[in-house]
Design a protein that fits this description.
This is UPF0042 nucleotide-binding protein. The chain is α/β, with parallel strands linked by helices and 294 residues long. The protein contains nine helices and nine strands. The protein has a five-stranded parallel beta sheet, sandwiched between helices. The chain has a four-stranded parallel beta sheet with strand order 7-8-6-9. Helix 1 crosses helix 6.
């Protein structure tokens, strides 16, 4: 291994235009990464030669590589294939995403044109870009949904994720949500628990949440719930080591019910607790306070 016999960390920052790549690259600069914004994929082989040069002392690099057209995208895939063959590199793809509505709002606020719809409607460019980037999104080790993140919150999220000395640390993020508000776009696995008895129809439980012991007891007392928990937990315990071996640093598991207030909250809490003995676990309840009156 060259480059002073030390493995070089390379983070490729990519994703939807307008999803926060500028904030991301500034965050990596704060972490001490050597950053290059909008590196053309065709120049990557030459750049790798410079990185591999044993006379330099660069061991942490972040590259922003985004979309400028279909030809650019094809070159990007060729470049990523090259990265996978370099055993002296610890490469990692960070994909920034956001919902269409959020991206349209950002383009309107900045009065910028989308790179794929210059002079046209931003939404047309966004939808075209999303189709083109779908395969790249699937190759990413980490996906961050910036739809509801302020720049500071995105920066804090990146700093927290990449400050670790060892990026191979694997974590599981359990997210509860309501289908009526849409499926989380950064979810790797989605489980639908709307088939379970709903505490919403027990009048005194309506204003409560799955964090309440009475609500969780109601959710877990049914045979179908117990069977579901057993089967899904068995599936997760089989799949998580495979995801970890494949190189993912985080797996987002989303549990959805109708409103994201009762069933999904209780079950997400249960799975997080069960997995916490073997994995770093995080939990968030996206829609727990979106019910009427909150």
């Amino acid at each position: 291994m060259s480059n002073n016999e030390q493995e070089t960390k390379l983070v490729v920052i990519t994703g939807m235009s307008g999803a926060g790549k500028t904030v991301a690259v500034h965050s990596f600069e704060d972490l001490g990464y050597y950053c290059v914004d909008n590196l053309p994929p065709a120049l990557l082989p030459k750049f790798l030669e410079l990185m591999k040069d044993s006379t330099n002392n660069i061991h942490k690099v972040a590259l922003v590589m985004d979309l400028r057209g279909r030809e650019f995208f094809d070159s990007l895939f060729e470049a990523l294939d090259i990265l996978g063959k370099e055993d002296w590199l610890d490469e990692h793809i960070l994909f920034l995403d956001a919902q269409d509505e959020s991206l349209v709002t950002r383009y309107k606020e900045t009065r910028r044109s989308h790179p794929l719809a210059v002079g046209g409607l931003p939404l047309n460019g966004i939808q075209q870009e999303r189709k083109i980037l779908d395969e790249l999104r699937g190759r990413a080790q980490r996906i961050i949904d910036t739809s509801n993140l302020k720049p500071k919150a995105l920066r804090d999220k990146i700093l927290k994720a990449y400050t670790e000395d060892k990026q191979e640390i694997f974590s599981v993020h359990m997210v509860s949500f309501g289908f009526k508000y849409g499926v989380p776009i950064d979810a790797d696995l989605v489980f639908d628990v709307r088939f379970l008895p709903n505490p919403h129809y027990v009048s005194h439980m309506q204003p409560l949440t799955g964090l309440n012991p009475e609500v969780s007891s109601y959710v877990f007392k049914w045979g179908d719930t117990k069977k579901f928990n057993e089967k899904v937990l068995d599936l997760l315990q089989f799949m998580l080591p495979q995801y970890k071996k494949e190189g993912k640093s985080q797996l987002v598991v989303a549990i959805g019910c109708t409103g994201g207030q009762h069933r999904s909250v209780a079950i997400a809490e249960y799975f997080a607790k069960q997995l916490s003995s073997n994995y770093i676990t995080h939990i968030s309840h996206r829609d727990i306070d979106k019910r009427k009156g909150h």
